[in-house]
Design brief:
The protein contains 16 helices and no strands. By secondary structure, the chain is mainly α. Helix 3 (60-86) packs parallel to helix 6, helix 6 runs antiparallel to helix 7 and helix 10 packs antiparallel against helix 11. It is 83% helix and 0% strand.
Length: 445
Amino acid sequence: MAQAKQDMGSGSVKKLMLQLMIPAVVAQVVNLLYNIVDRIYIGHIPGIGAAALTGVGLFTPILMLLNAFAMLIGAGGAPRTAIAMGQGDKKQAEKIVSNSFTMLLIFSVLLTVVFYAAAPALLRMFGASDATLPYALAYSRIYILGSVCVLLVMGMNPFITTQGFAKISMLTTVIGAVINIILDPILIFGLGPVPALGIAGAALATGIGQTVTLVLYLVVYCTTASPVRLRRKALRPDASLEGRLYAIGVPAILNLALPSLLVTFLNGLLAVYSQSYVTVLGIYYKLQTFLYLPANGIVQGMRPLISYNYGAGEHKRVRRLYQITLILSAAIMAAGTLGCLAASEPLMRLFTSTPETVEAGKIALRIICLGFVVSAISTTSSGALEGLGKGTQSLVISLCRYIVFIMPLAWVLCRQFGPVGVWNAFWATEVLSAIVSLIVYKKSV
């Protein structure tokens, strides 16, 4: 196990990036596949598949809130831990990790009680009908009961990567997801002595997968010579420390929430013209997931390295890490641009066969993709700033990309050129945001 750790303060920057980046990308891909497979199984439950799938979809806002609290701690604490490690302050690093673990436990217990009791009202508020509420409630309450495992796994995972154990983080995540995929058909449809549990089986499979992942984490923690350990004396909550963690964590949560706000706004603009354009926007964001997923993996690989080296005062290595991440991200975006230009119609036909939607989608992809390469500047700068512990500056970039530039541009251009104006607002926003990103990043480093 000790060989799985990387020394983040020395050695080849490129090699270190690959050692942390590849596991992060693999873990993200596996989780994406798990979510797809999970929904496929639920959608094929005999007689209730459509209603069950809708019910699970209604649970998404609650799931996002659970994830947000995990990120509040993980995204806020991991960079601070890496910076302290780079400074050689092991005591402070252990205090951050221990405090973060305590806060995750507190949040998980409180959220379990609150969401379990409020689930029926919340699901109604999110649009559950009499037909879908039973399925949404059956799934959500089982999932919520496993919130302790979910929050601990998601919240502590960044700390494991931060200490250089990227492969361990990947393996535990992948094993949990694979167990979930295997258990899904067994628990949903029944096999041998195992009864068919339907949608409750899907939630139970997820809970078991997360529990196994947590157990694996604990086993690894107890058997690996980790440089930063949980300390009993440091488990007591420290308000001043938590305030510094939230200064990074809160902007990170908002960074995740802003795209949803943007989609809602753009849907309102496009729905005036045709529902086909709303469908096109939804398809674009599905395709975008596969493009930005490896790019996000690269940024995740950079973040702990840039935190550690920043704390160690290795500013030359910080600059090098930023440059490598930017080049790799731009290369991925260039491939995505070529793919959209050359295969816009086949990509659209993966999701729809309606001629009107396919034709509108072809135009949308070919226009939006013009901003892909330049968007690497914003995503890299935002990720680097989070790694440097500058969450507010990172949020400024996200606000430019998702609110400040694109919403006014889309509104004005839509009235001048129709839906095509909305598509052009994407690349124009990326250009403007890239300029702001470079200015903000250079002033912050």
